[in-house]
Known about the structure:
It is elongated, with a radius of gyration of 24 Å. The model has no long low-confidence stretch (mean pLDDT 88). The protein is an all-alpha fold. Helices cover 50% and strands 0% of the residues. The longest helix has 26 residues, at 48-73. GO terms for molecular function: DNA binding; protein heterodimerization activity; structural constituent of chromatin. Residues 1-21 are annotated as: Disordered.
Amino acid sequence: xxxxxxxxxxxxxxxxxxxxxxxxxxxxxxxxxxxxxxxxxxxxxxxxxxxxxxxxxxxxxxxxxxxxxxxxxxxxxxxxxxxxxxxxxxxxxxxxxxxxxxxxxxxxxxxxxxxx
Length: 116
């Protein structure tokens, strides 16, 4: 009986991204590259880009959810900058963080009580 040997190891494992390992949709590797390139500090820990990506993903999901609710209130199926502006303006915490102007957002609806 002749024994044939199979190659050991089977080759290289498939690459898994840092975002996939962390269970995130935002690009952890790109955020890490921007943190290094931006020179915000001399050194950057390995968990910092993961945490920053998680925070950015949470804020984006919150804004998209609120803007979707605003679009549904206006009987629209597509979110536009106006809906994002209304969503951020109606939320206290997001309103403080994102106080600046959103291009294409218009003005916040406000009728003076003296005119009513």
